[in-house]
Amino acid sequence: MVSWRIHGEMAEINLDIRHPTVFSIRMHHGGEFTSFPGRKYIHGKQTFVDLLGIDTFSIHDIDEMMEDLGYASVGKPFYYHFQRPFGDLDFGLFALASDGDVRYLGTFVAKHKLIGVYIEHDKTTLHTYLMSPTHSKVRITEIT
């Protein structure tokens, strides 16, 4: 059951949430990143989503939000990144692709109620997917 709500304007979201696990996101979608340094997200839109609970939040929720916004995911991947509070777009972006990434995002929710999420369409120009803050314990070896 979806409990979050999508809004077009920041004025419509509720940031006066005192619950430590409830948060909102400012979703940047439909655009692209400029080059480093001084990276910006251009030609995109902003959508606000509130009443998210970090205890149940997953990447699949963002997939559903993208569908609700009219983006078809068939054959074209989306790359999700979140912006660490007070971080810039050059060094403050982190991958949002796994449960570990969601747990890392969750470390900010109690003190920061609005998290920036950036979506790339079709391909990624960032290296955040190669630098996840949680190192995988999975080891891949070739069997001969």
TL;DR?
Residues 23-121 form the PB1-like domain. With 144 residues, the protein is an alpha+beta fold. The protein has helices at 59-68, 99-109; strands at 5-7, 22-29, 32-33, 41-42, 45-53, 78-83, 93-95, 114-121.
Report on the structure:
- The protein is of the alpha+beta class and 144 residues long.
- The protein has a single domain, classed as Ubiquitin-like (UB roll) (Roll), CATH 3.10.20.
- Helices cover 15% and strands 28% of the residues.
- β3 and β4 form a beta hairpin.
- The N and C termini lie far apart (46 Å).
- The model has no long low-confidence stretch (mean pLDDT 84).
Approximate strand percentage: 25-35%
CATH homology superfamily: Phosphatidylinositol 3-kinase Catalytic Subunit, Chain A, domain 1
Strand adjacency order, main sheet? 1-5-2-8-6-7
**Uncertain residue ranges:** none
- The global form is globular
Outline the secondary-structure elements:
Elements: E1 5-7, E2 22-29, E3 32-33, E4 41-42, E5 45-53, H1 59-68, E6 78-83, E7 93-95, H2 99-109, E8 114-121
Characteristic terms for this protein:
144 residues; alpha+beta; six-stranded mixed beta sheet; 2 helices; 8 strands; globular; PB1-like domain-containing protein; PB1-like_dom_pln
